[in-house]
Structures
1.
Amino acid sequence: MLELRPIFDAIGEFLNSILPEFWVTIVSAFGTGAIILGVASVFVLFFVWWERKVSAHMQQRYGPMRTGWHGWLQTIADGVKLLQKEDLIPRDADKLVYLFAPVVCFVAAFLAYVTIPFGEGLIVQDLNIGILYIIAITTFTVVSLLMAGWASHNKWSLLGGMRSAAQIISYEVPLSLSLIGVIMIAETLSMVSIVVQQEGWFWNWYVFRQPLGFIVYYIAATAEANRTPFDIPEAEQELVAGYNVEYSGMKWAMFFFAEYINMLTISAIAVTLFFGGWHAPAPFLDFIPSWIWFVGKCLLSVFVLMWFRWTYPRVRVDQLMAFAWKFMLPLAFVNIILTGFGIYLF
Amino acid sequence: MELGVFYILAAVIVVSGLLVVTLKNIFHSALMLILCLFGVAGIYILLHADFLAAVQVLLYVGGVTILMIFAIMVTHQLTGKKIKHYNEQPVPAGLIILSLLILLIVSITRTAFEVADKAEPMPTVAVIGRALMTDYVLPFEVVSVVLLVALIGAIVIARRD
Amino acid sequence: MATLEHYLILSAILFCIGVFGLLSRRNAVGILMSIELMFNSANINFVAFSKFINPDILTGQIFSVFVIAIAAAEAAVGLAIVVLLYRNFDIVNIDKINFMKW
C-alpha cells in the first residue's frame, strides 16, 4: 500500500546500480541525515504553530489568525524574523563556547533519531543497544545547557543553566529506571524488536503491562524536556529566560528548535516502547500505512504534553528535586520489583 | 576504513587529552575532557563493545563531567585569570613522563601477543548481564555497596550544616 | 585493520598524559580530570585485550564496567571534598592544603 520502505529500497537499488559501494555508503548516510533533518524541521514548524493554537484555545483565545488560514504561516514568518535579527555576542562572553553551545544542543537532539523506527522498516540503524543509545546520547543536552549558561557571562544564564542541568540529571535517573521494566519483559534493547513484540490487538501494547513504568516515564520525560510544570530552568517570571537569555537570532532559534525536537523524541520513545510503535490498535486497521500510525500516536502524545503545559502551574525548585528523588525514584524501583515478580510468576 | 577511523579517534583523544592537562581555563579543560571521553566511547565501538560505549557516554558525559562542571561553577576561584595553574614540577614531570612513554611503547612493540582469531558474542548486553549475575556476582555486589557508601559519603561531606 | 598494538599505544599515550596532568596541575579539579584520563586508558586496555586475546567471554568489558562505576564514586567523593575545602578555607590548590602537616 502506501508503505514508504519500498520507495527507499528502490532508491537504494538505483544508487547501487550507478555508484561504487563506498560512495553509496556516503550518499545514503548524508541522504538519511537530510531526510531526518527535513522531516524534523517540518514537525517543529508545525509544533510551534500548534502549540500557539492549543494554548490559545485552552485560554479561549484564537491565537495567530492573520498569516494564512488560521495563521498556519505564522512559524515561517517567525523564522524570517529571527533570521533578520542582529546576532549579538555579549562582550565578556566566552566566544568559542558561546558559539558551540547551540550547535551541541541541536546535534544532541538530532542524534537520538538514529534508532527511532518511524514505521515498518523506516529506521536509520537498528542498534543492538537502541534505547540505551538514546538515553546516553541525549545527555549531551545537559552539557550544552551548561556551556550556554556559563559562556554567556550572565548570572541569570548561569543560574538557569545550573538549574536545568540539575533537573535533567535528577530526572534522568527515574527515566532510565522506568524503561527497565519494558526491557525486562522484551528481553532486548533494540527498538525494532520491542515494537515487533507488541503486534496484534492493542492490549498487547506494553503500556497495559507496564502502567506504572509508563507514568514514571512520562512525568520524568516531561521534566527532561524542560516543559511546564517542570520548566523552572526557563521560568520567565523569575529567571528572565534561563540559560538562553543572552542568545538572539538563529542561535536562540537553535535552542528553541532542539526543545521541540526533544518533545517529539520523548513522544516517539513513549510510542515505541509503550504504545506499539507503528502497529495499528487492531489488526483489521492494518490497511493504513504503519508510518501514519506512528506519526499519529506521536502527535497525540505531543498534544498531551501541550495540554500539561497549559493546565498545570509551575512547581518550585525544591519541590521539583524532592519529587524526583523521594517519589519518582522509589516508584521506578517498585516498578522494577513488580515486573520481576510478574516475570517470575507468569 | 577501520584504521582510518581509529586514527581519527586517536587524534581526537590525544589532542583533547593534552588540552585537558594544559588549558589555562579549567572550564575549557572540562569540555575537552568530555570530548576525550566521547572519543574513548568511539574506540569502544570500534572494539565491538557497544554496551560499554553507551555506558561510557551515559556515566562519564552525563554524570562525572557534569559533576566536575558543577564543582567548577561553585568554586569561582578556579576560572579566574590570575591564578597559576601549574606547580613547579611540569618540566621534570614532562621529562619523566616522556621516558615512561618511550619505555611503554618499546615494551608494547617488542612483546609478541597471542592474538586469538575468534568473534565475540554479538549482542554483548546479554553476555555481560549474565556474567555479572553469575561469575562476577560478588564484585558486582561489592561495587554496589561502594557506590552507596560513596553516595552517602559525598552527601555527608558536602552538606551545609 | 587496527591491531592490538595500536590500541595499547593509544592507551599508553593517554595514560602518560594523565600522569603528567596529575603531577603538574595545581588545582584539585584538574587533578581529578587527569585521574579520569588514566582510568580511561586502563579501560581501553581492558577492552582491547578482551577483544584480541579472549573474545568469547568479555571479561575485559565487565572489568571496564566496574572501573567506570568506581570512577563515578571517586569523582563524587573527590568533588565533595573540593567543594568543602573551597567553602571552609577558600582554596582549591592542592599544595596549599597542608594543615595536617607541621
2.
Amino acid sequence: MDFAEIRRLLPHRYPILLVDRVREIVPGERIVASKAVTGNEPWFAGKDTDRPVCYPQVLLIESWGQSAVILALSSNADPENLRKQNVVLAALSGAQFHRPVLPGDVVENHVTLSHWSNRAVIFEGWGSVAGQVVFEIERMVLAFRSATELHAS
Amino acid sequence: MAKVEQADVMEAQVVLAEVRLKSAGRTGAMAGHAAATMRIAGDEQIFAGHYPAFPIFPGVCVIECVRRCLLAALEADVVELVAVERAQFLSAIFPDDEIEVTLDWERTGESWSCSAQVHTSRGKSAVVRLRCTVEG
C-alpha cells in the first residue's frame, strides 16, 4: 500500500500523518508499516543545539497507532461505516523505548491485532530500525467514536 | 500558528503550548508534587491534521504535555521517556481548552517515575504514568 492509498484510508493529515508505506498486511491479524524520519520534521523548527535531534517518542507511538488504524480499517467488514467515526487513543500500557530514533532512520511498525470488541480494538507489537527493536508496545486500545459521543464524554 | 519563542530550543516541539507552573515542591528527599496549566490554543499545529474535519487533541500529545510539565517542574534541560507504563484517556480535549496537570514524581535509581492526572473544565481527561530519564 503506497502513500496515496494510506492517505485515502487514514483521516490524519499533515503534520501528523505518520505512515509512509504499508509493507505487509494480513487483515484481521497483523501489519508492517513504515515511517521515514527526516531532519526536516516540523517538530524540529527552531531547534538549534549540538544535541542529537531525536524523533519525539510520543510520535513513535502515534505512527505505530496509525499503522494499527490501517490494520483495523482493513480488517472490518464495513470500513466505510467505521471511517465515519473518529478513531481515538483510549488506553496504552507497557510502552518501552529502547533507543533513540534519528533523522535518516526508517521505522518499521510491527502491529498485531489481539482483540476486537464492539468498537474498541486492542493491539500489541513493536517498532524497529534496521532490524533492531527500538520500542515495544504491550497494549494499545483504539476506540471508534462519533463526534457527538466525544463531545459528551 | 503559535510561535516557537525560544531562539535556542533544546527539544523537539510537538506541542507548542507553554507550561504555566502553579506550584512545584518536594514531598520527600527523592519525590515531589507539581501542578501546572497549559492552554491548548486552536492554532496548535497538530489540529490541522488531527483531524481536519474534527479537531481533537491527540492522546499522545496529552502524554507529551505531562512530560513537558515534568520538565518544567524539575527545571530540567531534557526529560526523555523510558516507558509509558500506563495511560488512560477518559474524555476528549478540544481546541482552546485549558488543561490542568497535577503530577507526583519520584526518583528511583537512574530513572524517574511520574504519575499525572489531566483535567479540563469538563472533568478528568486522562491518567498517565511515565518513567523517564532527566538531564540538567
